[in-house]
Design brief:
Elements lengths: L1 E10 L7 E11 L4 E6 L5 H9 L6 E6 L2 E2 L5 H4 L3 E4 L13 H11 L12 H12 L18 H13 L5 E5 L7 H17 L3 E5 L3 H6 L3 E6 L2 E7 H5 L3 H12 L6 H5 L2
Parallel strand pairs: 3-8, 3-9, 6-7, 7-8
Antiparallel strand pairs: 1-2, 1-4, 4-5, 9-10
Bound molecules: adenosine-5'-triphosphate (ATP) and magnesium ion (MG).
Length: 266
């Protein structure tokens, strides 16, 4: 469903600060793939997500989704079929707007034939409540409260819901549980599994947790220096340990994995 062919991106080209963040990278995803991504600091993981989401156009190569070339499609148009969550739980929602208003914006924006400024109907409201109850956080009774009152975990769960209410073709998760306390992180991760499975959403998830990377989904990528240095799935992946990942990283790059957060994660 996603086809990335030989993309490259250099920031500040031709200057002393030039940095090749993505280097001749190719990736093919099948429908329904759930792929975890792990890598050293500055490996280009978030930059690859930015390239897919259209935060900038790549210097070389092409990106297509379901056979449609989106290499030069602007970001706001890609956002109709590519969902994205960031590490910062404050990023995906508007704090002074109510839960209901935030959901309406996300829902109506992605629904054919309606304007985000149309009235929230009774039917919409019932749908929002039904969706919120899936989170099991009691948010279905707090529709009229500003999102700014929610905890980080509640807010991230809401953002996840908003990004998937109208299922995107592709969901990009950039360490979306890393800023949450362990219990909440687990809850949001469970929701991620349930929601993506229920809606058959193809998903790329960056994590710094090697255990998570190997347990979740069906395929794992290791990134270093703007490239994918390891791509494992199926039978081979099911036997891999954290130690295997580290030694495969070293074999592929000639370097030790230098990300302390990864090395210290449980
Ligand atoms: N907008 C930008 N302008 C200049 N350099 C950038 C920009 N975005 C990223 N970079 C550089 O590109 C490289 C890759 O950064 P990126 O954020 O993709 O790394 P990452 O793999 O997500 O790392 P981390 O694990 O720390 O989040 C880094 O050297 C970074 O400094
Ligand atoms: Mg990053």
């Amino acid at each position: 469903m996603l086809d990335i062919k030989n993309i490259s991106k250099t920031f500040n080209p031709g200057t002393i600060n030039a940095k090749k963040a993505i280097s001749d990278l190719s990736l093919h995803l099948d429908n329904g793939d759930f792929v975890t991504i792990i890598g050293s600091n500055g490996a280009g993981k978030s930059t690859m997500f930015n390239a897919i989401a259209g935060a900038f156009y790549v210097d070389e190569g092409s990106i297509s989704v379901d056979g449609k070339d989106i290499t030069f499609l602007p970001e706001y148009k890609r956002s109709h079929f590519i969902g994205r969550l960031f590490q910062d739980p404050l990023k995906g929602t508007a704090p002074t707007m109510t839960i209901e208003e935030n959901m309406a914006l996300a829902y109506l924006r992605n629904t054919e034939g309606s304007s985000p400024f149309s009235r929230i109907s009774k039917k919409d409201k019932a749908f929002f409540q039904e969706q919120l109850s899936l989170l099991e956080m009691g948010l279905e009774d707090r529709l009229k409260q500003p999102v700014g009152l929610l905890s980080g975990g509640q807010r991230q769960a809401l953002t996840l819901l908003m990004s998937t209410m109208v299922p995107p073709k592709l969901l990009l998760l950039d360490e979306h549980t890393a800023a949450l306390d362990p219990g909440t992180a687990e809850k949001v991760l469970d929701l991620t599994k349930t929601i993506t499975a229920r809606n058959h959403i193809t998903c790329l998830m960056i994590t710094h947790n090697m255990k998570q990377a190997l347990e979740l989904g069906n395929r794992t990528l290791l990134m270093s220096d703007g490239s994918i240095v390891l791509d494992v799935g199926g039978e081979e992946r099911s036997h891999l340990t954290k130690e295997d990942l580290l030694s495969r990283f070293k074999a592929g790059t000639g370097q030790e994995l230098d990300n302390d957060r990864i090395l210290l994660s449980q």
